[in-house]
Amino acid sequence: MKELRHSCGLFGVYGHRRAARLTYLGLYSLQHRGQESAGIATSDGKQFHAIRSPGLVKGCFNDSNLARLRGRLAIGHNRYSTTGSAVPANIQPLIVDLKGMPLAVGHNGNLVNAVDLREEMQATGSIFQSSTDSEIFAHLMARSQCRSLMGMIEYAAERVRGAYCLLVMTDEAVIALRDANGFHPLCMGRKGNAVVFSSETCGLDVVDATYEREIEPGEMVIASQGEITSRSFAQSRRLSHCVFELIYFSRPDSVVFGVSVDAVRKAFGRRLAREKPADGDIVISVPDSSNAAALGYSLESGIPLELGLIRNHYVGRTFIYPTAELRHNRVRIKFNPVRELLRGKKVIVVDDSIVRGTTSKKLMQMLRGAGVKEIHIRISSPPIRYPCFYGIDTPTRDELIAANCCLEEIKRFLGVDSLGYLSVEGMLEATGKNPDSFCVACFTGDYPITFRTEPSKLALEKLKH
User: Fold this and answer.
1) At 319, is the pLDDT very low, low, confident or very high (cuts 50, 70, 90)?
2) What is the DSSP letter of 72?
3) Rounded (5°) CA angle 152-155-159
4) The dihedral formed by the CA atoms of 254, 360, 319 and 435, expressed in degrees to the nearest 10
5) Strand 73-79, strand 37-43: pairing
6) What one-character DSSP code corresponds to residue 245?
7) For the chain, what is the radius of gyration of the CA atoms?
């Protein structure tokens, strides 16, 4: 799956003298969650310091500017634009003045009632600086009649609907909260006396922090005055963990929703081999996101796993490029077949998903050009038939190949000898978790949080005019 943009990465530190540098390392580990921009805000107890820039983490920060980020508190953000475009005003953490109190906010997710809330607030005098739904939180907090910051945050959380993991920093506190459905992951750990928050456990590992637990759905954790407190601000009506975190988004060395991402992907591959067996000489993955699923398929089927496609790791993800021609050129640069291994073979290609199908088609053509005798493509997730509105920038339904073509038509489009997807039931069973705890709306159209009008990525931008 190479054509979806996914949710952002959050990292925060409370109570460490090198808070900015730890956050830099954490964001580096979470780079896969957002490659458009990065930002870090710190507090030294008296004032905020911030650096926010377009680009990758390694290009945004260096020893010189990190040294300017003074303080023992920090929050950082890697961004993909799922609401609003990739412009400087939308780079996070957002920094605002809330009734005389400086505040930094970092958000991962999407609010499905963002347009309604913003129209309502603009009609009564609110002035927005960005086109992100994240800024809506700050405006709602400012409108609250509560005197305490926690009360303001809870007021905002009660008004919004959708997916959000949030880090909020004041001059003396770092606050983490997660929506009641628990769409996306957010965890906490300890490094000595410091508290560390991260979208994934791989962020804790890189700074040698000890994983403690997930932030629970509907929970707010406050690190302030040397203490950690917790409060529940919403009851979970329906757990809706994004299953794509396990299929593709999260790093395989992370623990997400209480399970090893690597182990679950292997289980997807094993289940896929049982559901959709194929007669092949070798199994290959489309690196790197389907490596574990391909290994699972190989182990279950007994067909040897080989490295048939080599990925150039110095090339970013193909979906960053907006036109088909540019995406095609990017695919040619990113992947290269091992011709001597593939020539004359019946090959089982395991990939994690198919979105538009254009990238997969180019890959299959590449394999044919390398002399592959037969191609049997196996997908370790079900067909994607519906867009996501909870933090993933998916194409529209008109662009999703599985929403508009039957299995045989997709097979012909890809130019393969056979095609098989993992079933929804098989996928959920392979997680080892309660099947009812996952959001599978992109496969079934069963959206756990409804919306008045279908959310659009640039809808808030249009409200500016």
Assistant:
1) very low
2) S
3) 140
4) -40
5) antiparallel
6) I
7) 22
Rounded Cα distance between 133 and 90, Å, is: 10
- Residues 204-228: tens digit of each pLDDT: 999 999 999 999 999 999 999 999 9
9-14 and 241-242 strand pairing: unpaired
- CA–CA separation, 43 vs 74, rounded Å? 6
Instruction: Name the token pair of 383.
Output: 């067909």
Of the CA atoms within 13 Å of residue 18, those in its CB half-sphere come to 9
Beta bridge pairs of residue 193: none
β-pair type (73-79, 9-14) = antiparallel
Predicted confidence at residue 320, as pLDDT, reads: 45
Where do we find the tokens 């302030």? Answer: 224
Q: Which residues pair with 189 in a beta bridge?
A: 196, 211
Domains along the chain with CATH numbers: 9-240 (3.60.20.10), 260-433 (3.40.50.2020)
User: Which residues lie below 8 Å from residue 301, measured CB to CB, with a gap of 6+?
Assistant: 273, 277, 278, 283, 348
The residues annotated with a catalytic role in the active site are 8
Nearest C-alpha neighbor of 198 from the set 165, 222, 230, 226 = 165
How many angstroms separate the first and last alpha carbons of the chain?
Answer: 35
Q: Which residue is it, tokens 């067996």?
A: 277
The answer to whether 267 and 297 have CB atoms below 8 angstroms apart is no
CA distance 39 to 106: 9
pTM higher than the cut 0.90: yes
Q: Which amino acid is at 388?
A: C
- DSSP H/E element including 11: strand 9-14
